[in-house]
């Protein structure tokens, strides 16, 4: 059954487009601290992790929520996955710049989980996400914790590989 939430180009589409434009401009103007390959890997991580979880819990058999204007997959839904790219880039960019060590890992991940929940809440408010099928926003907490922790592990894996090649 196709559920239609609205038929107009409105806040949810503008949220996706403005997020894409503004955050990607920011990615290109900040000083580069990663190689092109490493920066691209962290950038793309956001796309794949967002798509993975949305296509795991947002479609059958669970189908907990819908994205954008209809329950059908649309082009703007595809574009919305690219919104996650700059966030994952900034996540690891700040991690590197702030030189996170020790117990600060936990504080950093928890801070970004809170930020992610705020951004998800904004997405709900503008009609990007529709939790009409029983999904609760707090269910996203373990997903954010897992995705963010995995990216830090990935970051350290890349750094170890780079250090090994230098030897």
**Shape descriptor:** globular
Helix content: 55-70%
Overall pLDDT:
90
How many angstroms separate the termini? Answer: 59 Å
The number of helices is 6
Rg (CA only)? 17 Å
Strand order of the largest sheet: 1-2
Low-confidence residue ranges: none
The arrangement of helices and strands along the chain is HHEHHHEH
Number of DSSP E strands: 2
Structural class: mainly alpha
Report the major sheet: 2 strands, antiparallel
- Residue fraction in strands: under 5%
Helix-strand layout with pairing:
Blueprint: H1 11-29, H2 36-57, E1 66-67, H3 75-82, H4 84-97, H5 104-125, E2 129-130, H6 140-166
Antiparallel strand pairs: 1-2
Could you walk me through the main structural features you see in this protein, from its secondary elements to its overall organization?
- The chain is mainly α.
- The chain is 67% helix and 2% strand.
- It is built from six helices and two strands.
- The protein has a two-stranded antiparallel sheet.
- The chain is globular.
């Amino acid at each position: 059954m196709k559920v239609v939430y609205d038929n107009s180009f409105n806040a949810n589409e503008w949220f996706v487009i403005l997020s894409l434009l503004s955050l990607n401009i920011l990615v290109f103007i900040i000083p580069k601290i990663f190689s092109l390959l490493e920066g691209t890997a962290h950038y793309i991580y956001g796309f794949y992790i967002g798509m993975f979880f949305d296509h795991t819990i947002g479609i059958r058999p669970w189908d907990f929520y819908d994205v954008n204007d209809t329950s059908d997959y649309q082009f703007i839904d595809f574009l919305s996955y690219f919104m996650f790219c700059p966030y994952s880039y900034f996540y690891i960019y700040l991690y590197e710049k702030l030189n996170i060590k020790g117990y600060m890992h936990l504080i950093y991940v928890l801070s970004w989980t809170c930020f992610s929940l705020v951004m998800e809440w904004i997405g709900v408010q503008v009609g990007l996400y529709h939790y009409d099928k029983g999904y609760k926003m707090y269910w996203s907490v373990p997903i954010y914790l897992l995705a963010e922790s995995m990216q830090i592990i990935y970051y350290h894996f890349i750094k170890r590989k780079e250090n090994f090649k230098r030897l």
